[in-house]
Design goal:
The structure is a single chain. This protein is mainly beta. About 15% of the residues lie in helices and about 45% in strands. A hairpin with a 4-residue loop joins strand 2 and strand 3. The longest helix has 27 residues, at about 5-30.
């Protein structure tokens, strides 16, 4: 190849590169190129849904033991049903039913408790911060007692501390201890010298489904 041909080929290559650069700069300046939104749909080898939302509603049942601080009755079985709705990772609201049967000092007589309350729950740690999630709950509700010396209506302010965790995506287990002071209550047996109140404590294991 002669010197003239080599020089001509080099000039052709340089001209082609210059034209390509100019065309790229022109395309970059076009409004339709600048304003085109980025692609949000991932390729087919990646999932469309990258994060499944955590459960926000839980329905649980529990069983345990309940006792009275004022010796109104002996320690007996207790059970409960609860619905919890998560508002944030830290805060939830609860609706709770709890019942119990306890033996009174009079032989063969039982004290049957029924309680309904609502409370606000605060998670001390978020669910992703530890192997179990500790929490506290404060609420207000109604409690009534049937049986000898029972009281049909009292105001209670349940205070609870507990832990729980998800076992699967939709199954959770936990335990809680509750102190339930009562107001406007009177469980005094007939003929007793001192008045007996309905302040109680309860220790329950619970499990249920989260959705």
């Amino acid at each position: 190849m002669s010197m003239q041909r080599r020089a001509a080929a080099a000039m052709a290559v340089a001209a082609t590169m210059a034209l390509a650069g100019a065309a790229g700069a022109q395309d970059a300046g076009r409004p339709e190129q600048r304003d085109r939104p980025p692609r949000n749909v991932p390729p087919a080898d990646q999932p469309l849904i990258r994060r499944i939302p955590e459960p926000t509603i839980a329905v649980e049942g529990g069983f345990g033991a309940l006792g009275y601080l004022g010796a109104a009755a002996g320690v007996g079985p207790t059970w409960n049903v609860r619905v919890t709705g998560a508002m944030t990772p830290r805060v939830a609201v609860e609706g709770n039913y709890i019942g119990s049967v306890n033996q009174r000092a009079t032989m063969g007589r039982s004290l049957v408790m029924t309680s309904l309350d609502a409370g606000v729950r605060y998670n001390i740690l978020r669910a992703d911060e530890a192997i179990v999630q500790p929490f506290v709950v404060a609420g207000v509700g109604y409690t009534g007692w049937a049986g000898e010396g029972g009281d049909a209506f009292a105001l209670t302010v349940p205070l609870t501390a507990g832990v729980e965790r998800l076992v699967t995506r939709n199954v959770k287990l936990g335990a809680r201890f509750s102190y339930r002071p009562a107001f406007f209550d009177d469980l005094t047996l007939r003929g007793a010298a001192t008045q007996t109140g309905g302040d109680s404590w309860a220790l329950l294991a619970h499990g249920g489904g989260a959705f």
